[in-house]
Every structure is written in C-alpha cells, then in structure tokens.
Amino acid sequence: MKVEIVIIIDTLYLGGKMININKKKLSKNKERSQHKKEGFMQGVVTIMFSQILIKILGLIYTLYLTNRQGYGDTGNGISAGAYQIYALLLTISSIGLPNAISKLVSERTAIGDHKGAHRIFKIAFATFAIVGLIGSLLLFFGAHVIANKWLLIPEAEMTLVALSPAIFFVTITSVMRGYFNGRQKISIGAKSQTLEQVFKTLLTIIIVEIVAILSNVSTEWMAAGANLATTLATFLGFSYLFLYYRTERKEIALEIKNTINYKYERVYDIIKKILFVSIPITLTAIMSSINKNVDSFTVVRNLKNFLPEEQATALYGILGGKVDTLTTLPLAINVAFATALVPAISAAKAKNDNKTITEKTSFSLLVSMLIGLPCTVGLVIFAQPILNLLFPNANDGALILQITSLATIFIILDQTINGTLQGYGKLMVPTISMGVGVLTKLVLNITLIPNPNIGIYGACIGSVACHVVAFSIAFTLLRKNIKLNLSVSKFVIKPILATTIMGICSYFIYLTLKGIIIERLATIIAIIIAVIIYIISVIALKIFTKEEIKMMPAGDKIVRILEKIKIY
Length: 568
Hints:
Layout: H1 2-67, H2 72-95, H3 97-110, H4 114-150, H5 157-182, H6 186-214, H7 219-247, H8 249-257, H9 267-303, H10 309-328, H11 331-350, H12 354-381, H13 383-390, H14 398-405, H15 408-424, H16 428-448, H17 457-481, H18 488-514, H19 519-540, H20 546-550, H21 555-564
Helix pairs in contact: 1-6, 1-10, 1-11, 2-4, 2-5, 2-7, 2-9, 2-10, 3-4, 3-5, 3-9, 3-11, 4-5, 4-8, 4-9, 5-6, 5-7, 6-7, 9-10, 9-16, 10-14, 11-12, 11-15, 12-14, 12-15, 12-18, 13-19, 14-17, 15-17, 16-17, 18-19
C-alpha cells in the first residue's frame, strides 16, 4: 500500500513537473518563433541598407570611371564585356552556393542539428575551393582566346587576367556567407559585402589613377586596373568573414555540443545534396549571366555592320555601363527579401509551418511591388535629367535607359519569387522561367539589332521581353504551390495609383523648378519630393494592414502614430 501511495505521489509530482517543463517548452518555442519573425525583418533591413550602400558606392566608381578622361563609354565597353565573361564563370563556380548552403544549414538548425549543419559547411568549403580555383585558372589561361575570338574586343585580355583570381575568393566567400545566413546571422554576410564594396571603390580610384599616370592614360590598361581593384576587394571581403568565423568558434562548438537529431551522412551524400540544391540555383544565375552575355555577343557584332567599331563599342558601353548600373540600382533594395526568404521559407517548410510561408511570401511580394513600380516609373520619367545629373561628361542614352528600365519591376518581383521557390524546394522553376526568357531575348536581339532603324534599342526590347516572360512563368507556378494573401486591389491597383500620383506631382515640380533654378538641383529636389509623396500616398491608401506594419522594425510604434493621426 505504501509503495502504491509513493508511486502515486511520484507520478503526480513528475506529472506536475512535466506540465511545467511543457509550459516552459511552449513558452520557449513561442519566444523562438517571435525571435525568428523579428530576425527575418531585421535581416531584411540589414541587407537592404547594406545593398543600398553597395549600389551607391558602385555608382560612385562608375561615375568616376565614366567621367574620367581617357576611360568613358569606351572603357566601360571593354570592362563590361570582360566582366560578363568573369560573371559567367563566377556563376558556374559559386553563385548558387550562398542560397544552397543557407537552405541546407537552416533546415538542419531548425530541428536542432547544429553538428550536421557545420559538417555541411566544412565539406562545402573544401569542395568549392577546388571548383573556384579551376574557374580562376580557366579565366587566366583562356583570357587571350576569350577577348580575341569570343568578345572581339582584344583590349579586354588584360582585364580578364586581372579578374581571374577573384573567382577563387568569391567562391569560398559564398560558402561562408551561406553558412552564416543559414544560422540566421544574415548581417555578417551583408557587412562583408559592404566592406568589399568600400575597398573596391577606393582601390578602383587609386589604382586607375596610378595606371593612368604610368600608361599615359591608356584606356585598355585603366580598364585592367579597375578590375584588379575588384580582385583585391574580394580577397579583403573573404578575410573579414574568415576572421569573424575564428571569433565564433567557441559559440559554434557549444552549438555542436548541444546538437539533437544528428544524422550522420557520408561526404559523398552531402556533396550530392549540396549540388542537388546549388545546381538549379546556379543554373538560374547562369541564365541571368547569359542574358547579359547575349548583349556582349550580339550588340557590337551586329552594330558594326552599319556603324563604325568605336561607335558600336560606345553604344554597348552605354547599355552595359551606365544603363545597367541605373536599372539594377533598385534591385539592391529588394535583394534583401530574396536573400532572407530562402532560409526563412526552408525552416518553415521543415516544420510544416504553412501560415508563416504564406505571410512572409505575400508580404515580401507586396513590398517588392511597392519598391519596383515607382523605381521603374521614375527612371522612365527622369531618364535624361538623371543622366545629366550623374554623367555630365557622357550623358547620352536616355531612350536606351527608358526602354530598359521597363524591365525593372519584373526583375524585382522575379527576384522575390525565386527566393521563395528556392526556399520551398521548387528549385528548377526559376531556372526554366529564366531560360525561356533568355531564349526570347536571344531571338529578339538577333532579329532586331541588325535592323539599322532599331539597332541598340533591339537589345533593350529583348531585355524587357526576357523578364516579362520569366516573371509570368514563375508567378504562375508560385501561385500553384503557395497560397498568397494578396488581392488585385492591394497588389496592383493601389500601388499603381500611388505611383501615378508620385509621377505626375514630381514631374510637374521638376518642370516648374527647371525654369527657376539649375537643372541638376531641380532634378535632386524633384526626386526627393517624389519619394515623400509616394510614402504619403502608400500610407493614405492603407496598402499595408496593421499586422503587416507590425512585422516591420518599430512596427508597433508606427501603428500607434498612425492611429493617433487617425489614418488607421
């Protein structure tokens, strides 16, 4: 009898203890879920600011090079052709890695397998260091053939040689960024990219000035010097991540010690899994790189049939230099969602959390629309004023910029969709959609550019068609796989209305100010006012719900302010 009483008491005690433990677990899970929600937006904001800074710095050295005597559009033409070949080899060796490693690591850490996550990182680092080295050697020893036979720009040979070591450093850096992203430390990768761009900007200016003095202002050698700066900057970006990893070893060791759900996998199986994820992502990036290389292979070659070679190269320099820089500037703001969505969606899918997938995907798409639409319209309306402002010594190309910028909204939305699909496991969809888009561009380039009445504008039309096709396919398949919480009014009509108000008001202000003050100042003021008007329009139209605003950093405070002024 005593034994039975003791057993009953022990059972009640242990039961109570178990209830408390379960309560604590539920509380911890709730806190962890909240932390991840905040972590997602914190990561997005960190990457967003980082990418904006990177693009501004990139714009600074592009402005410097384009306006630098002896460089200009011709130097951009030499550099752009070489850079696209470099980007293609870089894509093959590393571009899919950050998202692939991020996806696999986040899936393991979501279930507590930190040891398995770290093992994925170590094996990936060793494997792709070899791949990156091979890519560097191919570019170094193939520079002569690529410049003379493929690009038909012999001056690009030294530029390719200068870029070749960067492939190795970017490849191993990509593995490290993917590992930190998967561990929800997205800001570390963002900081390394920012640091890399700071060094790239400074070194570009310093090296080009030194080369200009030593070579008597040779455009060919200045272009090579500018790309040598890129190589040195990639090494410094890797160095930052490596040093940070060393400071994190104790924390990583503790995580590994507390691992649960560890499942041993052979090296071969891990490499196969990494390749299974990275190859489709890399193929998508290859398609994007091929999209640019379509221009490098078709523009100068076809324009030379009815234009002098120097003019043809300069036109390609406008497209691949100034226009490409300006049209991709808005992507810096949006790439944060594409980067943060991969580990976030992967972790949610590993836990079968469909609600989180729907919320984050819908919110990210809405923000992408609100970023892309005004940027597209702004570039169309202010094309010539922006070129006059930024490139006073080389301001040609307004119509090229206007046509090409129409693709911006579709590229931005496609960026977000691809991040979601990759995180969800639908890895081949972005590849297929972009592949069809690139094929469309190739056909249009070959057909339109040789026509003297169309010329360079054929490449612009091809780019727009490419991204419209890619977006249409990807968005259709996204809706089939993931439930979206977006209405036509919220996602299309209200953003268009806000953008229209912004466009009309800002252009009217520009025209008014242009007759009173100098044009450059009028452009700056009109753009600043455009941003303010757009933000006010978005708030007034109540495009975001209270819950969506609360997802943002300081969201609760913003909601309270909007409630006080009786907007919500």
